[in-house]
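$ ./design --mode recover --in tokens.txt
reading tokens...
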């Protein structure tokens, strides 16, 4: 059995199953994380989607829908709950996964007060973004393009 974690002064390495992290000659493609990288790690999935929920009206009402089902982004399963970065270009009435003007953030749990009230749930294979209920049968509809990156690092 290989040791998948190596922590030495100034460096940490996490390898894929079957590779020994203490072996400094392990190729980058067999690592999940190396603190010497200028980048955070391998990307499992990335992409962009638009909210398929039909708008309940037009103009300012286009930000609402009668659909209460959360928006779900799927990606290949990896056997653990990964970290993800989600960015919504612009949704004026959204409170879920954006931070003032659509700035994205790393979505790891627990998220504390980084989200107003409805944080996304990240699971092995999916990111689920709840819709806030605006009462009178209207729910949050995400406008603009939703971009996501899922990293091969466990929460």
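writing sequence...
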């Amino acid at each position: 059995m290989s040791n998948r974690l190596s922590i030495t002064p100034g460096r940490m390495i996490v390898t894929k199953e079957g590779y020994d992290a203490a072996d400094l000659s392990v190729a980058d493609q067999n690592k999940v994380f190396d603190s010497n990288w200028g980048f955070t790690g391998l990307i499992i999935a990335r992409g962009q989607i638009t909210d398929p929920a039909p708008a309940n009206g037009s103009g300012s009402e286009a930000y609402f829908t009668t659909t209460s089902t959360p928006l779900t982004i799927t990606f290949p399963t990896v056997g653990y709950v990964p970290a993800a970065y989600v960015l919504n270009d612009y949704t004026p009435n959204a409170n879920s996964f954006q931070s003032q003007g659509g700035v994205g953030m790393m979505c790891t749990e627990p998220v504390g007060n980084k989200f107003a009230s409805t944080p996304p749930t990240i699971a092995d294979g999916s990111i689920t973004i709840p819709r806030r209920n605006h009462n009178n049968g209207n729910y949050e509809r995400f406008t603009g393009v939703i971009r996501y990156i899922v990293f091969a690092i466990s929460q």
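exit 0
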